[in-house]
Amino acid sequence: MNKTVALIVLAALVPLGAFAQTVSPYSGQQQRSIKALSPDEVKAYLAGEGMGLAKAGELNHYPGPKHILEMADHLGLTPAQRARIEAAEKAMSATAIPLGRAIVDAEADLDGRFAAGTIDEKTLRAATAHIADLEGRLRAAHLLAHIHTRSALEADQIAMYDTMRGYDVNGDSAKHMH
User: Fold this and answer.
1) 33 CB contacts (<8 Å, ≥6 apart)?
2) pTM for the complete prediction?
């Protein structure tokens, strides 16, 4: 009899622990208008923000135009450098903002198809390929702005930028620039 009571108590306690551990990290996200994107991500896409898309450039001595312009006085930018970097930022925004809008729209369409129960394999593959293409083009636009920005700067300005941003931990950023 004691064994039976122990099993009943154990059976009553186990589900409590099991339920506590099954809550998804996505809990609450089902309320989003576009399930795959947070409101901050939507805002960033629509504003043409970098969202870390250009880390390959940024962390390899290819500064971004936005940050260079914010540090222009500290870096001693000439008027000609400032004009070139402003042009790089403007060109990037002109490409990134429409691409960001297209990504948000494509994600909304994909979400809507799932919500309506009308998604199929062919549609899924086409939609995700389209989103991947848009994301690739957006990343390229941001990285291209870093390439254009670097070409407007002197090696010592890039080294100073790296130091100011905390990237020059070994004091060797200049050896990677030509």
Assistant:
1) 108
2) 0.82
HEC per residue, the chain: CHHHHHHHHHHHHHHHHHHHCCCCCCCCHHHCCCCCCCHHHHHHHHHCCCCCCCHHHHCCCCCCHHHHHHCHHHHCCCHHHHHHHHHHHHHHHHHHHHHHHHHHHHHHHHHHHHHHCCCCHHHHHHHHHHHHHHHHHHHHHHHHHHHHHHHCCCHHHHHHHHHHHCCCCCCCHHHHCC
- Reported as a single tens digit per residue, the pLDDT across 55-91 is 999 999 999 999 999 999 999 999 999 999 999 999 9
User: Is 99:138 a contact under the CB 8 Å cutoff?
Assistant: yes
Phi, psi of 38 (to 5 degrees): -75, 160
Cα dihedral 100→81→144→44 (10° resolution): -20
Cα-Cα-Cα-Cα torsion 129, 136, 32, 38, nearest 10 degrees, comes to 160
Could you tell me how far CA 54 lies from the centroid of its own chain? 9
> Does residue 13 have a pLDDT over 60?
no
Q: Which of 27, 51, 144, 26 is nearest to 103 (CA)?
A: 51
